[in-house]
């Protein structure tokens, strides 16, 4: 085994251990008094042909299976999807600062959620995830339509600029409705700052299919992403259609992002921080970058959620505040490093 292979093996092992530790901390930390021994026995008791006594009370079992576990699994799905989508965006656009919200997903989702919340009553608030999902997809569709009209979707720069324009328009409309219905500002901002509150397993079951499909399609294009890193002309000479690949990857990454945003709100910086951190440790090759981003992104967001619900306990800090506190300094580090390299 070469030195590079050993280093990669250590990085992969470390990422998996970090995810295991993050999940364990997320399940155990809190006022319910759950113990590692009791949780392990309770999980073993749910296996087929296994019958053991965990020692957990009915209340503790309900907290474990209906609150802690769904929230932790949702954090894993959201963090993994945002990180993989960020790696995919950075690959197809060859832009180290690209993230899952690049094409207006966040602005469109925010507008959709705002319209659902100001729609009134419990029915409006219950429709927030669906409205956010639809708003994110419509924003990206508008971005691509505008990009095709202006530049024929031949340049990633045109698509990015179109995304900026669509995001600005969606933000303006959102601000207008927020001013008209200022009594809903607290609900709107609570959703926009991100949260992983769950109602049992329903959110997990809704998000899971989108995450699986999106991650699978992106993973199948890992070698193509490596080829596209050299440029569109070179990639085309090797038999790859850059515009088609870019459209496919942006669509599936956006689909997964819109799904997790609809469940968790606008959680920023994960798609920038995680792929860059992995790239610094394991190199730019997507064969390793994508799975490591998935595992590391999941661990990062689960730990951020633990901080969000414990720092100001019994109150809960928006998880977007925690990720921004970590992501903003890292963003500045990336800018400074890029300047030094150039």
TrEMBL record:
Its placement in the membrane is given as: Multi-pass membrane protein
GO molecular function terms noted in the UniProt entry: transmembrane transporter activity
Q: Which GO terms describe its cellular component?
A: plasma membrane
Query: Where, per UniProt, does this protein localize?
Result: Cell membrane
Query: Looking at the keywords, is Cell membrane present?
Result: yes
Q: Which stretches are transmembrane?
A: 72-89, 101-119, 125-146, 158-180, 200-220, 247-276, 288-308, 315-335
Going by the UniProt record, its keywords in alphabetical order are: Cell membrane, Membrane, Transmembrane, Transmembrane helix, Transport
Q: Does the keyword 4Fe-4S apply?
A: no
Which InterPro entries does the UniProt record give?
ABC_BtuC-like, ABC_transptr_permease_BtuC
Question: Which Pfam families is this protein grouped with?
Answer: FecCD (PF01032)
Which family does the UniProt entry place this protein in?
A: Belongs to the binding-protein-dependent transport system permease family. FecCD subfamily.
**What name does the UniProt record give this protein?**
Iron ABC transporter permease
